[in-house]
Design goal:
By secondary structure, the chain is of the alpha/beta class. The chain folds into two domains: about 260 residues, 3-Layer(aba) Sandwich (Aspartate Aminotransferase, domain 2), CATH 3.40.640; about 160 residues, Aspartate Aminotransferase, domain 1. The chain is built from 15 helices and eleven strands. Helix 3 packs parallel to helix 10, helix 4 runs parallel beside helix 5 and helix 4 packs across helix 8. The chain starts with 13 loop residues before the first helix and ends with a strand. About 45% of the residues are buried.
């Protein structure tokens, strides 16, 4: 293609969102500064109430980051050595990272090839294999909602309940997505999320949250996130009259959301539904324009919505496309180039009782494109044009004569609707 002439495109444009919010973020930050309440306090409790209402959850507790959000319920359930925790291998490391913290064993599960989320069939097979070996006790399933859409929670819940296991919905990338009109907490014992700045609902720093239905569990997690302080039930049972922070009933951690981040998130939550609609429009435009130029555009589970945290396609010539896009000032990302079971640390610490061939295959084809609510059609046109050019160039190469004067053929499937399948490998006719 021609030499780059336009400005580089941001992968996620946080400044566009800030402009859309006007001075509301600045006002929220000043409000906290003037209050002098920087840790916990009214901004945090109000945000937690608003978050719970949004997700239809009885309880929402914020914490320092999305990783702690997964760790806190594991602590509350007293996970430890000898316990098996099942999670996908095709995910960000945080989903599995917390498991060895407690001496437990990660058991990796394969993904569904359409949604990239945990395969119920693979999960069932992995649980049965672990039980048959009788060296570990299956305790928890961590289902990751990858790229913005929900896992198959009706199926996963049925499996977890049948085996007496807890279910965590790791919604770090998908908070706001629903399945059959429900948020994941409708099925899961807990739903966790992250407020890392790049997330669909992101802070201007780090943060996370745990949502749940069980009041007793909420009390314990509230205690654990603040150094194991006494819970209301602890205090009532012992008639303790002092500050709960100075009566420590359990070994906890220090995992609190800053009040400034809570104030920022409260403002962002007011426009979150509208931003999800904008993301959907952008994703639909990508899919309509790209489906004839890539191996695969995203599929959404039946009855589901997506937050489109990432717009992830599958391609055959990934390195070539990444280079072409970079030449045009277009950033890309690969989520994820190496499944966790293939990384030395987790290969050593984990169990792998089932095939993970889909995870391995997808790692070689996935490619994520710029995605955020404020991505304009003009910028999308720039991105899509690269794929259109690559298809046109490849078609020209296929139709060019071979050195022996014979036409080229390709080893893919020819159709009138798709005269140049991008999966085809080209070679001269024998």
């Amino acid at each position: 293609m021609a030499a780059r002439s336009a400005d580089p495109i941001p992968f996620i444009d946080l400044q566009a969102q800030r402009r859309a919010l006007g001075d509301r973020i600045d006002t929220a930050i000043v409000r906290v500064l003037q209050s002098g309440q920087f840790i916990m306090g009214p901004e945090v409790s109000r945000f937690e109430a608003e978050l719970a209402e949004f997700a239809g959850a009885p309880f929402a507790l914020s914490c320092a980051n999305g990783t702690d959000a997964i760790a806190l319920p594991l602590m509350a359930w007293e996970i430890g050595p000898g316990d098996a925790i099942f999670c996908p291998s095709f995910t960000f490391v945080a989903s599995a990272e917390v498991i060895p913290w407690f001496g437990a064993t990660p058991v990796f599960v394969d993904i569904d090839p359409n949604s990239f989320n945990m395969s119920p069939a693979s999960l069932e097979a992995a649980i049965l294999a672990v039980k048959a070996k009788d060296a570990l006790v299956p305790r928890v399933v961590i289902a990751v909602d990858l790229f913005g859409q929900c896992a198959d929670y009706p199926a996963l819940t049925e499996i977890a309940r049948a085996h007496g296991m807890k279910l965590i919905a790791d919604s770090a990338q998908s908070f706001g997505a629903t399945l059959h009109g429900h948020h994941p907490v409708h099925w899961a014992d807990v739903q966790t999320t992250s407020f890392f700045p790049a997330k669909p609902l992101g802070a201007y720093g780090d943060g996370g949250a745990v949502l749940m239905k069980d009041r007793d569990l909420a009390e314990i997690i509230d205690s654990l996130r603040i150094h194991g302080k006494a819970s209301p039930s602890d205090i009532a049972a012992a008639n303790f009259t002092h500050d709960a922070r100075y009566w420590n009933m359990r070994v906890g951690m220090n995992s609190r959301l800053d009040a400034i981040q809570a104030a920022i998130l409260r403002e962002k939550l007011t426009i979150f539904t509208r931003e999800l609609e904008m993301r959907q429009t952008i994703a639909e435009r990508y899919s309509a324009r790209l489906r004839d130029h890539v191996r695969r555009t995203p599929d959404i589970i039946a009855g589901g919505t997506s937050t489109w945290a990432q717009y992830t396609i599958e391609v055959d010539t990934r390195d070539q496309l990444v280079a072409r896009l970079a030449d045009e000032g277009i950033p890309t990302a690969i989520y994820y180039p190496l499944p966790l079971h293939q990384q030395e640390c987790y290969a050593r610490l984990s169990e792998r009782p089932v095939s993970l061939e889909i995870s391995e295959a997808k790692a070689g084809t996935v490619l994520s494109l710029p995605m955020h609510p404020y991505l304009t059609p003009e910028i999308q046109d720039r991105i899509i044009a690269v794929f259109e050019h690559e298809t046109k160039s490849a078609r020209t190469d296929v139709l060019a004569p071979a050195q022996d004067g014979l036409p080229f053929r390709f080893d893919g499937v020819y159709t009138s609707e798709n005269p140049f399948p991008t999966t085809a490998g080209c070679g001269p006719l024998a």
